Amino acid sequence: MIDSRQKAYLDAMGIGVWSLRENSVPSIPATAEAPRLRLGSGNGGILLVCVADTDSASRLANDISRALGAVPVWAWPGDDDNTIELASAVDDKLFTTVAIFGHELAGRFFGHELPDSVNSARLVLLPSMPDIQTNADARSTLWATFCRFGMVTRN
């Protein structure tokens, strides 16, 4: 890096100065108290974020995993020592897709504006788990979202 005096001399001689640009990667607009995640078992590039660990162990979660054709990693908010920030989880585990169940849960992470991605992972908003259990339109939306974002793998 050159100081302002040296830059002024070079400018006066008509010599352009090259400098490093600031990192232009947009930061994730997280809320002030974004929850940390506890990661469950699973593997692959899809992280499914639900409200509680009981959601990830439900029959509906098993059906969703089977529909995806893979064993996604399930996660839920937690506040103990075995938790990780969402962005760190994406970087550490190399997730390519982060899917969050429900607007309310997504709002806890990002506030009112959801970004398109979390670091290198695409962010996908899904209907909430209770809506999926009780509403046929929510199940249809879930399947359409899985297909649109290429989350379904064929065996």
Strand and helix map with partners:
Layout (H helix, E strand, L loop, with lengths): L3 H9 L23 E4 L6 E4 L3 H4 L2 H10 L4 E6 L7 H8 L3 E5 L1 H8 L6 E2 L2 E6 L2 H6 L1 H13 L7
How would you characterize the overall build of this protein?
This protein has 155 residues and is of the alpha/beta class. The protein has a single domain (24-148), classed as Uracil-DNA Glycosylase, subunit E, CATH 3.40.470. It has helices at 4-12, 53-56, 59-68, 86-93, 103-110, 129-134, 136-148, and strands at 36-39, 46-49, 73-78, 97-101, 117-118, 121-126. Strand 5 (117-118) and strand 6 form a beta hairpin. The longest helix is centred in the last third of the chain and has 13 residues, at 136-148. The chain is elongated, with a radius of gyration of 21 Å. The termini are far apart. 25% of the residues are buried.
How would the global form be characterised? elongated
Number of strands: 6
* Oligomerization state: single chain
Q: Whole-number radius of gyration?
A: 21 Å
Spatial separation of the terminal alpha carbons: 54 Å
